[in-house]
């Protein structure tokens, strides 16, 4: 049995008895905030009648061959609401077993949490067996959590027959119900769920819903700026039953995109951030981002800087290996990027080698990930699209709605989305040249962000692609869980007005083989030595809590080809 | 690369150490095989009905199998053991990788690191085409010792040269085309079929050179690849003939057919040429003290100056190479353990970027657009077809390489033992 006291002073410099709430900016010179938590004793006492200790579900994440993170959040008293800074230190017992009935418990321990970490519990369960299903649960204040299921990664030299991941992104609470999560949670064949960003949205209640409809109102009501704001928003999303069910089904592997902090974030700011302390000011960007990262670290089953500890760093980009079959490199394309170009004409700065989307260190790391050839498939968890896309052929009256979906198309017809890799073409050129120079095969970018489904080859040279066809890899983009897509913004039925847009884009971009601007849903990614296949599933209405989900399309890339091909059926 | 020769238009003459058999091939071609003297007619191993065939589609890229132009190879792959994560090994050239296939060891042990080296003894650059260049035992010789028959059908003269008379039965490539200096695949396959029919060796090692040779010279290689595509279709037909023969003669069910390439292929633009000779000569320390062995996508640099200045010389060679446009990387051979090239490879290995080529001693020395030897040409097709259960259908994510062929053949025939120091590769059969 092990006991973890993350709030005790320790050699790693963890926070002390007075429960200092670090804002996730250790080393950045950002002030810490002392909470008003009374120094009460640790509680394990039963709670008031009817009070639920485990209101936010359980989760696991970042599976390694011998360890996996498990997570929960306790509400030891009615007052200990998320972001309140209130509530006693609480002992939480945890157990990991090979069976759902917990007859074969292989690891157990106690974790002490407090208001200093918003009563979240996150720990790395070690000494597990590779490629093994486990069940886990927590006990606190006389109550027991639901049981979660998780799975460790295969051993480094193992040759798994397949890997299967759920793939999701862009879940806007105000835009509808998370039916995509619910249907994905019903599958029992997922080794993990890849969440490619925009797990939550920062907007105030009433802004940015399902078109003009606010299906569910955000809490807190304002745009989230403070640490407590971010905590409450995480808590609201984690209270969603569909999301809880999916978390309990399989480990998550997540990256943040922009909305986990603020829209169109970059290294020194964000479109949806007003710097300064005057009227409407939201303070310093780095301070706000540090709060967002701190809340993310508390509330997500993810290792920042390679650990489950809080406050020891915010490096999100990381590798996870699955035997010889696949290595997954998860990227952070917000924290280190240069500012997006924002000019009313095609700006040569998009190809300025001094501008970066990855940051120099992450670029070196990513190139090393691809070149080291640790596994056959080089999967890249890529928050924003890397395939070059020109929107130049769009009808003028459709530029605005397409812009609303995809981001940053100025009204005068700038043909590229400069929030994607298209706005940082020198980084893409450098990465693709690296792939070509070293003969790297089987690189697959897995992407979210753009609220639409895409399958694309990644040409080394767009001009030569129709003739030579040489490619750096392929990209699969999942649709949004709920966030607005083109038909939502146009206010038209599915597969009507969007078809013209899709056809115009496909015609102008022959390397793009599939585009669905209309659907919400999820994807299933199946990886075998022979191919990687992505299945797109679409939900009915996001306004319907019980909506259905149906298979839409499937595309695959066969080993060694660096090309996508249509597949006529999904994996079972 | 090999320097194109003048071709051969008359059949090779017999040597004193072999017997020569002339037979008529299926297409009416006269085939000349040589056989080692003293080969027993009925050795113990002759009763072994297993057969292994290694078909090297020289210079083939893995994606070309999926191009739709090679249906026979695609079918063979689909029905067998496929290793999509396969690669050539440094230097990604023809001779060293064929030698690795048959020895199962890397160049620091086989003695053959590249097609062309600077021979310090001779004081000149030469092609590694001498039987004595291979300094270890091949799996061919191991099979011979077990009384099993072996055969080589190699389309390139330098391959015929380096493997010499190791195999029980050999076909000397003929006719050699004047420009490409290789025997066309239709002749090579005719010889392979004739060898199987006439001698039925347990192992036949075949090099099909068209895809590589046409790739080298295809001026449309970067875009249209017109000649290359035609070669893919043609070579695939030859492989189809071989498979048909195995099936029609009842050999299929007891055979494995290992198909791979020795390296891939990359095409350079006319303006993307790296010539290190001049910048090396302009350096005061290096002038007159460096020899260059140009290998298409790789240059091997040899310090020929005073031994006491070698370290300084290597440092300067590295600096000059790394500062030259088009050079991807340069490595101190003796201090780069993963290269495993041995002293024959010289002191510094320089690789070019994709889309470039080396041309030494001057920029017109290497006029051909298609090249290999650099990391861009690492990926290769690698699969094991055939009707024998050892080739049962499967796809593996394990790393496979040219050096795996010898241990695969050894495993298939149940050969005991391994080279002193062990194999550098491993068997890629089902139990491997």
TrEMBL record, chain A:
InterPro entries: Metallo-depent_PP-like (IPR029052), PhoD-like_MPP (IPR018946), PhoD-like_sf (IPR038607), PhoD_N (IPR032093), Phospholipid_Metab_Enz (IPR052900), TAT_signal (IPR006311). The lineage of its organism: Bacteria, Bacillati, Actinomycetota, Actinomycetes, Propionibacteriales. PROSITE patterns: TAT (PS51318). It comes from the Bacteria. This is Alkaline phosphatase D family protein. CDD domains: MPP_PhoD (cd07389). PANTHER family: ALKALINE PHOSPHATASE FAMILY PROTEIN (AFU_ORTHOLOGUE AFUA_5G03860), PHOSPHATASE, PUTATIVE (AFU_ORTHOLOGUE AFUA_6G08710)-RELATED. It holds the Pfam family PhoD_N. Residues 165-536 form the PhoD-like phosphatase metallophosphatase domain. Residues 56-152 form the Phospholipase D N-terminal domain.
């Amino acid at each position: 049995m092990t006991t973890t006291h993350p709030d005790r002073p320790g050699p790693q410099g963890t926070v002390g008895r007075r429960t200092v709430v670090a804002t996730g900016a250790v080393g950045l010179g950002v002030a810490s905030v002392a909470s008003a938590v009374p120094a009460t004793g640790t509680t394990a006492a039963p709670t008031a009648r009817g009070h639920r200790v485990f209101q936010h579900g359980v989760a696991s994440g970042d599976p390694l061959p011998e360890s996996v993170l498990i997570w929960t959040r306790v509400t030891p008293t009615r007052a200990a609401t998320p972001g309140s800074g209130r509530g006693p230190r609480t002992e939480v017992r945890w157990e990991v077993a090979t069976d759902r009935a917990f007859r074969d418990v292989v690891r157990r321990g106690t974790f002490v949490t407090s208001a200093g970490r918003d009563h979240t519990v996150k720990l790395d369960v070690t000494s597990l067996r590779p490629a093994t299903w486990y069940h886990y649960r927590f006990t606190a204040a006389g109550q027991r959590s639901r049981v979660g299921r998780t799975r460790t990664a295969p051993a480094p030299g193992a040759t798994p027959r397949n890997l299967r991941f759920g793939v999701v992104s862009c879940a806007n609470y105000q835009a509808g119900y998370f039916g995509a999560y619910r249907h994905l949670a019903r599958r029992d064949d997922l080794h993990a769920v890849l969440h490619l960003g925009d797990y939550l949205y920062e907007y105030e209640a009433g802004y940015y819903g399902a078109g003009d409809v606010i299906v569910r109102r955000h809490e807190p009501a304002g745009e989230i700026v403070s640490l407590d704001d971010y905590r409450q928003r995480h808590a609201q999303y984690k209270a969603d039953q569909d999301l809880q069910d999916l978390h309990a089904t399989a480990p998550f592997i997540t990256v943040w995109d922009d909305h986990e902090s603020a829209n169109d974030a970059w290294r020194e700011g964000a479109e949806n951030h007003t710097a300064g302390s005057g009227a409407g000011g939201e303070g310093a960007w780095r301070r706000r981002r540090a709060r967002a990262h701190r809340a993310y670290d508390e509330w997500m089953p993810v290792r920042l800087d390679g650990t489950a500890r809080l406050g020891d760093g915010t490096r999100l980009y990381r590798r996870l290996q699955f035997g010889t079959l696949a290595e997954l490199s998860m990227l952070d394309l917000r924290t280190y990027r240069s500012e997006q170009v924002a000019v009313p004409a095609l700006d040569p700065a998009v190809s300025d080698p001094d501008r970066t989307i990855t940051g120099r260190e992450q670029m070196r790391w990513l190139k090393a990930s691809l070149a080291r050839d640790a596994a056959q498939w080089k999967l890249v968890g890529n928050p924003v699209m890397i395939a070059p896309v020109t929107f130049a052929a769009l009808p003028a009256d459709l530029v605005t709605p397409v812009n609303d979906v995809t981001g940053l198309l100025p009204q005068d017809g700038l043909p590229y989305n400069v929030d994607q890799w298209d706005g940082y073409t020198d980084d893409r050129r450098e990465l693709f040249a690296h792939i070509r120079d070293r003969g790297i095969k089987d690189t697959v970018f897995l992407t979210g962000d753009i609220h639409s489904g895409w399958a694309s080859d990644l040409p080394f040279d767009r001009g030569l692609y129709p003739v030579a066809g040489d490619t750096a890899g392929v990209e699969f983009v999942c649709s949004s869980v709920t966030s607005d897509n083109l038909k939502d913004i146009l206010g038209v039925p599915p597969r009507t007005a969007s078809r013209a847009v899709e056809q115009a884009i496909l015609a102008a971009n022959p390397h793009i083989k599939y585009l669905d601007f209309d659907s919400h849903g999820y994807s299933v990614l199946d990886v075998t030595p022979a191919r990687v296949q992505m299945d797109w599933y679409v939900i009915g209405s996001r306004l319907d809590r019980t909506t259905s989900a149906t298979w839409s399309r499937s595309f695959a890339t066969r080993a060694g080809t660096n090309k996508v091909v249509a597949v006529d059926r999904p994996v079972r | 690369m090999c320097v194109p020769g003048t071709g051969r238009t008359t059949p090779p003459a017999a040597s004193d150490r072999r017997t020569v058999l002339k037979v008529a091939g299926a297409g009416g071609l006269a085939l000349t095989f040589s056989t080692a003297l003293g080969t027993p007619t009925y050795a113990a191993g002759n009763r072994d009905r297993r057969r292994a065939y290694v078909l090297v589609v020289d210079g083939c890229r893995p994606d070309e199998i999926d191009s739709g132009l090679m249906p026979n190879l695609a079918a063979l792959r689909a029905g067998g053991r496929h290793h999509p994560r396969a690669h050539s090994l440094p230097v990604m050239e023809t001779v060293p990788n064929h030698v690795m296939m048959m020895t199962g060891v890397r160049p620091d042990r086989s003695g053959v690191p590249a097609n062309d080296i600077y021979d310090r003894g001779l004081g000149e650059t030469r092609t590694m085409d001498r039987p004595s260049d291979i300094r270890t035992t091949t799996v061919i010789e191991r099979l011979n010792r077990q009384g099993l028959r072996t055969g080589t059908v190699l389309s390139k003269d330098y391959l015929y040269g380096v493997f010499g008379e190791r195999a029980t039965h050999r076909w000397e490539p003929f006719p050699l085309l004047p420009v490409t200096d290789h025997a066309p695949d239709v002749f090579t396959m005719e010889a392979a079929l004739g060898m199987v029919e006439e001698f039925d060796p347990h192992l036949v090692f075949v090099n099909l050179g068209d895809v590589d040779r046409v790739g080298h010279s295809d001026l449309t290689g970067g875009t249209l690849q017109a000649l290359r595509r035609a070669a893919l279709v043609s070579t695939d037909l030859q492989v189809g003939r071989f498979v048909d023969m195995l099936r029609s003669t009842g050999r299929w069910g007891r055979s494995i057919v290992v198909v791979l390439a020795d390296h891939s292929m990359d095409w350079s633009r006319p303006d993307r040429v790296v010539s290190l000779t001049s910048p090396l000569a302009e350096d005061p320390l290096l002038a007159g003290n460096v020899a260059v062995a140009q290998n298409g996508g790789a240059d091997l640099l040899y310090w020929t100056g005073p031994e006491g200045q070698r370290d300084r010389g290597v440092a300067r060679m590295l600096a000059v190479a790394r500062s030259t446009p088009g050079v991807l990387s340069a490595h101190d051979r003796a201090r780069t353990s993963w290269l495993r090239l041995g002293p024959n490879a010289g002191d510094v290995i320089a690789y070019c970027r994709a889309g470039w080529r080396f041309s030494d001693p001057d920029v017109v020395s290497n006029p051909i657009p298609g090249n290999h030897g650099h990391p861009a040409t690492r990926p290769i097709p690698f699969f094991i077809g055939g009707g024998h259960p050892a080739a049962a259908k499967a796809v593996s994510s394990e790393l496979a390489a040219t050096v795996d062929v010898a241990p695969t053949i050894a495993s298939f025939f149940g050969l005991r033992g391994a080279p002193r120091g062990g194999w550098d590769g491993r068997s890629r059969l089902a139990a491997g």
